[in-house]
Design goal:
Layout lengths: L3 H14 L4 H8 L3 H8 L7 H11 L3 H5 L6 H14 L1 H4 L14 H21 L3 H17 L5 H13 L9 H10 L3 E4 L10 E3 L4 E4 L8 H15 L8 H19 L2 H13 L5 H8 L3 H16 L4 E6 L4 E6 L23 H4 L10 E7 L2 E11 L4 E9 L14 E3 L13 H7 L11 H4 L12 H11 L5
Parallel strand pairs: 1-3, 6-9
Antiparallel strand pairs: 2-3, 4-5, 4-8, 6-7, 7-8
Length: about 475
């Protein structure tokens, strides 16, 4: 059934078109005109039998009343204005609602709706501020920690989609991914002129998913990007109305892609077997499914607590020591600011996430035990190189669970007392006395600090660039 506001508008449209008053139509179907008025104003839901009686009295099929389309342009504007006035954004202003009357001109109605649309647009722009992003990300991190980073419904969705293309074992092929897209009505097209602020672009009108022309080693990148684009459609995502919703959508599509590339059943079987052999290793999990080290480590966090019975932590850290992505449900104290956000905070210099950068040989994982105020943890860290800088990926567990992992016999051990500033954030007294006032450093400017996110329909995406791209490719037939 259509929503009550549209249903009410359609009843009114056909009633007035038939030249009937509320009381006349009410008498014809056996209800008071006042009750019919509530239905036309979207404040009461009629029974289906009553709708059938109304349709018969008006001489139209009942399907005409149940259409989801507003009957006129004015009706559409009235519905939109009513919804906007009932929304949290307008209610938060503390202003009274404007009653929409028959005497209100179409021009005034269009002006009011236009003002509300602009108010909503500016609110969407504001959601891309760094402060809002950190707050929303913190809330999402806490939410995922409460459910052990595991989303059963997305696991089920991924399994169903894989079955639909006949994938059962082994690494997911590009052909299988293309078949998934085809079942959704999309073709995968590789281009070399994607908007710089996008990873992929989906043309809903022409059924195309545009991807970069080249992949990172192993092919994980293109498969993952295509799966993420498809996930938006499979999960019926709509344009995000808040930064929190944008982040939640991004988390869901990343999770779905990982669950397709590293399916639940085969992954748990592989990891359980390795655990039984006391030979768990992120690099083995990575190689078994043909994905990146980061993807394998993150996927491990999805499965570790629910299916392997262990709590864990994950860190992605830049070569400057800044934490870009973090998860823990094992009690490890991640660095946070006063708001509780971890993004951009510096991790302890004694943690393997930073020590790994000092190694001469970085081809293998770096293992370490670290004693912290919240306990002792075992860590496995691998470094990598991104488009702009180096980074490290760390996966770790509490001391008692180190026995299941390769590298548990490492002799690398250190102590961290962070967040105590005397741990690694303050120079020693001797060095401070030696150099204080005797040196001057020119700081490197981090460009991202001064560059605001493009504030379009999707946070971080430049609408002008996006639409120019779509327009340029809309006539392609290849």
């Amino acid at each position: 059934m259509t929503d009550l506001a549209t249903l009410g508008q359609r009843i009114r449209h056909f009633r007035t078109g038939a030249g009937l008053t509320l009381d006349q139509l009410g008498a014809a179907v056996g209800i008071a005109g006042s009750q019919l008025s509530l239905m036309e104003n979207g404040r009461r839901e009629p029974r289906l039998s009553l709708l059938q009686s109304i349709a018969e009295a008006l001489g139209i099929p009942v399907a005409e009343l149940l259409s989801s389309e507003p009957p006129t342009k004015r009706a559409a504007l009235e519905i939109e204005l009513e919804r906007m006035q009932q929304g949290a954004l307008y209610r938060g202003l503390g202003l009274p609602s404007i009653r929409i009357s028959r005497s209100m001109s179409d021009e005034n109605l269009e002006a009011l709706v236009g003002l509300h649309r602009e108010l909503a647009r500016r609110a969407r722009e504001a959601i891309a501020t760094p402060e809002e992003a950190r707050r929303a990300n913190t809330e999402l991190r806490h939410h995922m920690r409460e459910q052990n980073n595991h989303i059963p419904e997305l696991e089920t969705l991924a399994e169903d989609v894989l079955k639909s293309v006949g994938h059962t074992t082994g690494a997911l092929t590009h052909r299988s991914v293309a078949l998934m897209a085809k079942k959704l009505g999309f073709d995968l097209i590789h281009v070399d002129d994607l908007p710089h602020s996008t990873r992929s672009v989906t043309d809903l009108e022409n059924g195309r998913i545009y991807l970069p022309p080249a992949s990172i080693p192993g092919g994980h990148g293109l498969r993952s990007m295509a799966l993420q684009a498809m996930a938006h459609r499979l999960l019926d995502h709509h344009e995000p109305e808040s930064y929190a919703q944008f982040l939640r959508q991004r988390l869901e599509i990343n999770y779905f892609a990982a669950a397709c590339l590293m399916p639940l059943g085969p992954s748990v079987d592989f990891l359980s077997s390795a655990k039984n052999d006391r030979n768990l290793a992120i690099e083995d999990f990575r190689d078994a499914f043909g994905v990146t080290h980061e993807a394998a480590a993150l996927r491990f966090t999805n499965l570790a607590t629910t299916h392997l019975g262990m709590t864990v932590h994950f860190l992605r850290v830049g070569d400057d020591g800044a934490l870009y992505k973090g998860y823990e449900n094992d009690g490890l104290l991640l660095p946070t600011d006063v708001t509780g956000s971890t993004e951009g905070q510096l991790v302890c210099r004694h943690w393997s996430a930073r020590l790994a950068f000092t190694r001469t040989n970085r081809t293998t994982e770096f293992y370490q035990y670290i004693d912290t105020p919240s306990g002792t943890y075992w860590n496995s860290t691998q470094t990598g190189t991104g488009t702009q800088e180096e980074f490290s990926i760390t996966f770790g567990v509490p001391f008692n669970d180190a026995k299941w992992f390769r590298g548990r016999d490492t002799r690398n051990r250190d102590t961290s007392t962070c967040p105590d500033v005397n741990c690694c954030r303050r120079p020693s007294g001797e060095k401070a006395e030696r150099w204080s006032g005797r040196a001057w450093a020119s700081a490197k400017l981090h460009a991202h600090i001064l560059s605001p996110l493009p504030s379009g329909t999707f946070p971080g995406v430049d609408d002008t660039e996006l639409y120019d791209f779509l327009e340029a490719h809309s006539g392609d037939t290849d």
